[in-house]
TrEMBL record:
<dbReference type="GO" id="GO:0005975">
    <property type="term" value="P:carbohydrate metabolic process"/>
</dbReference>
<dbReference type="Pfam" id="PF02806">
    <property type="entry name" value="Alpha-amylase_C"/>
</dbReference>
<dbReference type="InterPro" id="IPR031319">
    <property type="entry name" value="A-amylase_C"/>
</dbReference>
<dbReference type="InterPro" id="IPR013780">
    <property type="entry name" value="Glyco_hydro_b"/>
</dbReference>
<comment type="similarity">
    <text>Belongs to the glycosyl hydrolase 13 family.</text>
</comment>
<dbReference type="GO" id="GO:0043169">
    <property type="term" value="F:cation binding"/>
</dbReference>
<dbReference type="GO" id="GO:0003824">
    <property type="term" value="F:catalytic activity"/>
</dbReference>
<protein>
    <recommendedName>
        <fullName>1,4-alpha-D-glucan glucanohydrolase</fullName>
    </recommendedName>
</protein>
<dbReference type="InterPro" id="IPR006048">
    <property type="entry name" value="A-amylase/branching_C"/>
</dbReference>
<feature type="domain" description="Alpha-amylase C-terminal">
    <location>
        <begin position="1"/>
        <end position="56"/>
    </location>
</feature>
Length: 57
């Protein structure tokens, strides 16, 4: 398991983790990005994280 705060260049909001979510369904696979562009994330072993601007909910 990995817990870390990542700096992103994304605006604040809720984003779909497109590496873990099923196509068209982000249920349980969202990440909150703060107004400062930072996201606190916990990933399981061998987990992956992928966020992009078009994945904002």
């Amino acid at each position: 398991e990995l817990s870390r705060t990542f700096a992103t260049s994304l605006p604040g909001g809720t984003y779909c983790n497109v590496a873990a979510a099923a196509p068209g369904d982000c249920a349980g696979n969202t990440v909150e990005v703060g107004d400062d562009g930072k996201a606190e994330v916990t990933l399981p072993a061998k987990g992956a994280l992928a966020l992009h601007a078009d994945a904002k909910e």
